[in-house]
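Quick one, tokens below:
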């Protein structure tokens, strides 16, 4: 009867690997990751509400057959021409938004500037303007957003072009803020520090080359 010989190979925790093997392990882990930005979009919706913006929603079917509503925020990224973010929704002036956004995000000067710009756009029209935003392209970047503005209480009254332009620019600026936030999260998720932390937490074992055991 032939004797069956078995070979055993030592297994390694991530921190026991060589630098080259660690990089191989990172690349393995990276290929299996999904970028799930739901928590960023949810936070963007909360911030939008502070600024007076309400995202339109769409129904998404879940695997169990039910549906849920999700904001109509579009994005693609993060290294191709046309990448960016945009949203569809409505905007009205939110009283106290400049103070509230500083309380909610005290270190985010870009959000402070956006709130200030929206207030400045509304001021000549006595804070009575309403606006709607739609996207009009296969590309999701903020430049594809088309914004219409009117007086909330008199849709026939002409709105100064300067006010329309200012609101358009600022809503697009907020879309850019969303994109930049998504990009920072994506970059962090793919950083060596984040990958190493996730691999250690999952206690994966590898062979000497860095391939998963």
């Amino acid at each position: 009867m032939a004797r069956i010989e078995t070979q055993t190979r030592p297994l390694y925790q991530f921190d026991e690997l060589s630098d080259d093997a660690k990089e191989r392990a990172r690349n393995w882990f990276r290929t299996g990751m999904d970028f799930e930005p739901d928590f960023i979009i949810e936070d963007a919706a909360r911030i939008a509400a502070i600024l007076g913006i309400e995202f339109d929603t769409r129904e998404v079917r879940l695997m169990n057959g039910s549906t849920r509503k999700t904001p109509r925020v579009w994005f693609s990224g993060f290294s191709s021409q046309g990448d960016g973010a945009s949203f569809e929704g409505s905007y009205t002036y939110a009283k106290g938004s400049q103070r509230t956004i500083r309380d909610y995000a005290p270190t985010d000067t870009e959000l402070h500037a956006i709130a200030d710009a929206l207030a400045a756009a509304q001021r000549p029209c006595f804070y009575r303007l309403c606006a709607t935003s739609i996207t009009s392209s296969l590309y999701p970047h903020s430049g594809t957003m088309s914004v219409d503005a009117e007086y909330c209480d008199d849709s026939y009254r002409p709105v100064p072009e300067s006010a329309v332009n200012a609101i358009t620019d600022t809503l697009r600026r907020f879309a850019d803020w969303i994109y930049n936030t998504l990009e920072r999260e994506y970059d962090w998720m793919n950083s060596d520090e984040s990958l190493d932390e996730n691999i250690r937490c999952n206690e994966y074992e590898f062979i000497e080359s860095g391939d998963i055991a």
